[in-house]
Recover the amino acids of this structure.
């Protein structure tokens, strides 16, 4: 089965580099990514744009808009969701930030937009984000929203709760929203939002962090698996879920095996491939 990984990273964030080296033990480079793609039959990946102006500074109020993939030159089968820095948009009097984002969207490798509530203390209903949603509708791009826990101890968690997505999804019915990480640990709340909104989906990235050892521990945790399956059962529709790894925070091959165990075999093709082509319509 050919797989599309809808959520990974390819940016020179110090936190990613340290995690890859010390915890997940992956080769966080172009060659390392291509090797893991080949080993797992991943034919396309989508990187979440993110950047920092100094090591360890993310979430960085000074990051340029849009945030892109800046680790190395990207492989041809790696696409991008442009990351948005809401701090600069708030003070964007001449709309230069929005013009730069609009211009970057024209790149064929750009397939979506990525927001980081919880990292940046801005509500999804903020006026700056409303302009981003207008751009998403204009270009028929999905908006991926970080939901759930943050990969740092400085998270503004009220902003990353799945119920915040419900507010904007109802206001912008012509925009597709993807809740990253299925809103974990609030998976049942996320499931309720998905069920309430035909334009809301979830990716299945980031349920665990680490190498094959840590992922094996997660696979053996019936409590964790039931936690995720409860949310999926509430939704009751596997067309609403997309596979994502959150690489380099995990090794791809064992993480794929973990996610496969959560989904009935007859829906694997949908979740690991078909749903991505419907949500990310610019995927070539």
């Amino acid at each position: 089965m050919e797989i599309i990984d809808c959520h990974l990273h390819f940016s020179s964030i110090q936190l990613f580099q340290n995690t890859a080296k010390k915890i997940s033990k992956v080769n966080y480079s172009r060659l390392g990514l291509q090797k893991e793609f080949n080993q797992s039959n991943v034919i396309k990946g989508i990187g979440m744009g993110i950047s920092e102006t100094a090591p360890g500074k993310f979430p960085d109020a000074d990051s340029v808009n849009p945030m892109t993939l800046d680790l190395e030159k990207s492989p041809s089968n790696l696409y991008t969701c442009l990351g948005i820095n809401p701090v600069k948009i708030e003070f964007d009097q001449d709309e230069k930030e929005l013009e730069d984002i609009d211009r970057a969207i024209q790149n064929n490798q750009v397939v979506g937009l990525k927001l980081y509530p919880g990292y940046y203390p801005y509500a999804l209903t903020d006026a700056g984000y409303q302009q981003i949603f207008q751009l998403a509708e204009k270009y028929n791009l999905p908006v991926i929203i970080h939901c759930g826990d943050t990969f740092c101890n400085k998270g503004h968690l009220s902003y990353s709760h799945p119920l915040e997505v419900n507010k904007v999804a109802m206001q912008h019915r012509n925009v597709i929203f993807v809740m990253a990480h299925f809103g974990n640990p609030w998976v049942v709340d996320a499931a309720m939002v998905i069920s309430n909104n035909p334009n809301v989906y979830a990716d299945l990235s980031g349920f665990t962090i680490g190498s094959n050892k840590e992922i094996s521990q997660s696979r053996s945790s019936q409590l964790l698996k039931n936690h995720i399956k409860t949310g999926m059962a509430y939704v009751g529709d596997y067309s609403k879920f997309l596979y994502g790894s959150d690489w380099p925070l995990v090794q791809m091959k064992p993480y794929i095996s973990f996610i496969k165990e959560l989904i009935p075999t007859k829906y694997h093709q949908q979740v690991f491939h078909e749903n991505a082509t419907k949500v990310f319509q610019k995927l070539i």
User: Anything to note?
Assistant: Residues 13 and 197 are 33 Å apart (CA to CA). DSSP finds eleven helices and eight strands in the chain. Residues 3-279 form a domain with the TIM Barrel fold (CATH 3.20.20.140).
